[in-house]
Amino acid sequence: MVLMTRRNMLKAGGVAAAYGAGLGVAGLWKQADAAMPMLLEARETTAIIDGKSETKGIMTWNDGPRPPVIRVQKGMPFSTKLLNSLNEPTTIHWHGLRIDNAMDGVPFLTQPYVYEGDTFDYSFTPPDAGTFWYHPHCNTLAQMGHGLAGLFIVENPDDPKFDREITLNLRDWRLGGDGQFIDQFKPRSAARSGTYGTVRTANWAVEPSYDVPAGGLVRVRIAVTDVTRIYRLGLEGADATVVAIDANPVPTPFPLDHLEVGPGQRLDLIVRVPDIEGETVRLVNYRSTPSYTIAALRSVGTSLNRDLREVKALPPNQLGVPDIKNAELLKIELSATAEGAPVKESFCGSLGYNFWAINKVPWSGDSPDPHDPLFELKMGKSYILEMANRTPHPHPMHLHGLSFKVLQSTDHEVMPIYTDTYVVQPDEVVQLALKADNPGDWVFHCHIIEHQKTGLTGFFRVV
Ligand code: C2O
Ligand code: CU
Prior knowledge:
By secondary structure, the chain is mainly beta. It folds into three domains: 6-155, Sandwich (Immunoglobulin-like); 164-310, Cupredoxins -  blue copper proteins (Immunoglobulin-like, Sandwich), CATH 2.60.40; 324-462, Immunoglobulin-like (Sandwich), CATH 2.60.40. 6% of the residues lie in helices and 42% in strands. It has a six-stranded mixed beta sheet with strand order 10-9-12-17-14-15, with no helix packed on it. Strand 18 and strand 19 form a beta hairpin. It is globular. The model is unreliable at 1-28 (pLDDT under 50). Copper (II) ion binds next to loops.
């Protein structure tokens, strides 16, 4: 499907030569060496996803056959050169990272398209530690649907050491029986809970299993990169402690029972591996009927005899604390629009329909002619977003560039955590507090990408 033009090949060759050390050999690339940014070449590849056939037209950065993971250190500069070897424009958004607006990767709002054969330099210093991820923000349904999503781990040197670390990139794929991509979405489903994939994977594999030390404490970093699916995660065969949600350490770690984790969200668990070699622990999605295993851990060796009670709260991130008493209330209403009014123009992967709206305005995002901001926020001021879901479907609402604190909900008891993504249930009204401490235009959208691209998008301007 991808045909590299001659111009692309020349450019790609040149850049690859100049940035050779970064090309696909993550181990050779050093974050401290700012003069040599990591090269991320967006390109097509093939991989065996369904366990049977080679799927063509997968999109990734650099090499397959598994999704990429970038590891950096908190507070150290990171820079990368995106080289676009796809046959359509792309960008990179660093999900959850509170960085400069110019690095946020939203076409037209924060940067131009990166066309075929072109490059874009991203550089920033991650202010927070935790589990993040990165993905395009252009023709997002197609590009993410075809694989473009990687984990972005910001390590904190002050975190305790565990016996092993596993990263899990959870997503489904829309593949036919022959292992090839089928239509990415159905308009009828986009107007409901979204179009689900046909093959469920972790790290691009169906039910992968990882060997872990018997009796050990294993840190499992999970990111839901799927374009549609909300998971309810739990473990079979072991106990685990939740230490972070959406990158931020929870003040008091708590035992994992079942936890809902929507598209865009992350979960950090410490799993106590069984003592006996060969025993398995299964990560299960209970939100599906029947429930199913996503991935497994297999105990190997003689027991390390670790104890979950050793697990203490991770050192917190330093986030802007909202001043609740003096905060201004802003009302946000999510609604369904009139039955799928067709949209005139299609650019950057608009799906050609409007099914949803924020405060009555549908916007598919990423347009050369952006709407007015939903709200203009004053730098340094605090706000309470009172968000009401007037639709019959849950929406994982995500805000770029800022973190908010969950205050209260009409639907259930909430954890008072700082996050960048909140799943708002049908008929729920939730209050989220934030301090506007990062200037720029910050997109606010549903992370069910079909909803995002059919109207459930807006942005806040912080000035
Ligand atoms: Cu992962 Cu606009 O977001
Ligand atoms: Cu939604």
